[in-house]
Specification:
The complex is a heterodimer of chains A (100) and B (167).
Chain A (H helix, E strand, L loop, with lengths): L3 H21 L3 H25 L4 H31 L13
Helix pairs in contact in A: 1-2, 2-3
Chain B lengths: L1 H21 L3 H21 L3 H26 L11 H23 L11 H7 L1 H11 L2 H21 L5
Helix pairs in contact in B: 1-2, 2-3
The chains are: A mainly alpha (100), B mainly alpha (167).
């Protein structure tokens, strides 16, 4: 029998993997993909708990998380392209223009 | 039967998610991310949320991943050279394992309770999941829905302005 705990443990594992990727990778696009992974892990928790509590609100939250993720993808990738145009690189070690 | 399906897809999701963080080439990461998203869509179907599964496939595996793969190809990113052992890897791994342990501890000792609503499996089968989502979205959550449309408009304008050659 699959309970809500299974889904929450799975989502915690995926979230931790996403955190690991964000903390260790240098490529900005891979970091971006790991952030998407973390957002998805949270979505899974929302839907599992919404099912467990027999309430629709959690799934509406997932809807809005997806909207924000789409907006974030558009703006974030535009930023990455603008940065690549200036520096010829998307390595996060080169993101130091505001440092003095 | 459902348990076997769950464990199978959970294993695939975890391994492909891990490969997203470890793949040398960003294109491989993107393909593994699509695999993870499809596994998540299967979980949503198992949780009686078929509309969310469809949206997951269309928005995440369709729109967002196409955007990411486009950018990867546009920038012509090669594979990174194998790095030697770094402190960042150790700290990142330690921190994420610590986070996993803490979340597991709290999930195991707590009971998820709250206001129990009236959406049972029977209701979902009677009305359909999409109708329930639509009803909630256009009555209780109308203002957030409109704000989300403004957010998308702002994102479109921002993306267009940022990717122009002369900012």
């Amino acid at each position: 029998m699959i309970t809500v705990y299974h889904y929450m443990i799975l989502s915690a594992i995926i979230f931790s993997i996403g955190t690991f990727g964000v903390l260790t990778r240098k490529n900005a696009i891979v970091i971006f993909m790991c952030i998407e992974l973390m957002l998805n892990a949270v979505n899974l928790t929302f839907i599992a708990l919404s099912r467990h509590l027999q309430n629709m609100d959690g799934q509406i939250f997932v809807f809005f998380v997806m909207t924000v993720a789409a907006a974030e993808a558009a703006v974030g990738l535009a930023l990455i392209i603008a940065f690549y145009r200036n520096r010829e690189s998307i390595d996060t070690d080169d993101f130091n223009m505001l440092k003095w | 039967m459902l348990s076997i399906l769950f464990y199978l897809f959970a294993t695939v999701a975890i391994f492909s998610a891990f490969y997203v963080t470890k793949a040398r080439s960003p294109v491989n990461s993107a393909l593994c991310l699509v695999t993870t998203f499809i596994c998540f869509a299967v979980f949503y179907i198992m949780l009686d949320a078929p509309f969310m599964a469809a949206i997951q496939i269309m928005v995440y595996a369709g729109a967002i991943m196409v955007l990411i793969v486009f950018v990867i190809m546009l920038l012509n990113l090669g594979t990174v050279a194998k790095k030697r052992y770094t402190h960042g890897l150790a700290w990142g791994g330690a921190l994420s394992i610590l986070m996993l342990l803490v979340t597991n501890f709290f999930i195991r000792r707590s009971i998820p309770t709250g206001t129990v609503g009236d959406v049972t499996t029977q209701t979902i089968h009677n009305y359909g999941h999409t109708e329930l989502i639509g009803r909630a979205l256009f009555t209780d959550f109308l203002l957030p829905f409109e704000i989300a449309s403004i957010l998308l408009l702002v994102a479109i304008i921002g993306a267009v302005i940022l990717s122009k050659r002369e900012v």
